[in-house]
């Protein structure tokens, strides 16, 4: 059974690798024996984190919305390693408003900025498309590989806006249309790519995580936790086992699927 989950001699690329969950993805892949390619916008930070993972890992500055940036990354990867076996499409952006006092007004659908919506589409959808096209094509040509697209529970269900209310019942923020729309697109892109590349030996699956506790207000943590069957938000490390399962031979007969790990959020 240990061999089923082993990633020894495998090379794995993680996009958006310097985020909270991205770092945990990298750590899990390295612990399973993979050579990890840490990619993010900040090349120096990516290199530093790759060194922290141990020997034979690689850090690259990559813009997933740039085809040339991804081509350069592929060349650097193949210059160092024999091949490419795993792609974790983790890079994404979520809404952040510089002025918290304006968050409620700007996040409301009626006022939500078109530029913000388009930016999310560009990174969260086009970025996954391009990364899969450039890096995944190499896997298809070599006849094997595992692509893991990171989506979200909000790719399957509409946002419950009540969890963004404080203890007084005041709405502090709205989850915008951008994140659910883009994550829903990723789930169906997974199905497309699994069907398109199935005959090549490349498997494509989605991992849909729930919310991670990361310094949110007590009101939000309480509201969110009450909606899960396990009664809590996720820890950043709660998705490591699922990721290794999808990356390894343990899921050898699994493709086109959406693995939901959300503490029961979408079960009822």
Could you outline the blueprint of secondary structure elements for this entry?
Layout: E1 11-14, H1 20-31, E2 35-40, H2 43-53, E3 58-61, H3 67-80, E4 86-89, H4 103-107, H5 114-142, E5 145-150, H6 178-197, E6 202-209, H7 218-226, H8 240-247, E7 258-261
Parallel strand pairs: 1-2, 1-4, 2-3, 4-5, 5-6, 6-7
Q: Which structural traits does this protein have?
A:
268 residues; alpha/beta; 7-stranded parallel beta sheet; 8 helices; SDR_fam; Sc_DH/Rdtase_CS
What distance lies between the first and last C-alpha atoms, to the nearest angstrom?
A: 33 Å
How many structural units, i.e. domains? Answer: 1
Topology, number of strands: 7
List the strand order in the largest sheet: 3-2-1-4-5-6-7
Shape: globular
Q: Structural class of the secondary structure composition? A: alpha/beta
